[in-house]
Amino acid sequence: MILMLAALVVVLGVPAALTWQGQRRRGSGRGVAAVAAVFFPVAWTVWYVADERPYGVS
């Protein structure tokens, strides 16, 4: 259980932290950076999963 929680924190936390850092470096305020840190990784993951072709389809 603890290992799964740690893996979830890493999987969700790393993209959020990188997005936060990038937005802050571009001069965005903390609020904008926080919103971007939450929504960008989620939106990108949903887009990636929905866009992927099924295995074996050319």
UniProtKB/TrEMBL annotation:
Alphabetic keyword roster: Membrane, Transferase, Transmembrane, Transmembrane helix
GO molecular function: transferase activity
Residue stretches spanning the membrane: 32-50
Record-given protein name: 4-amino-4-deoxy-L-arabinose transferase-like glycosyltransferase
Organism per entry: Nocardioides aromaticivorans
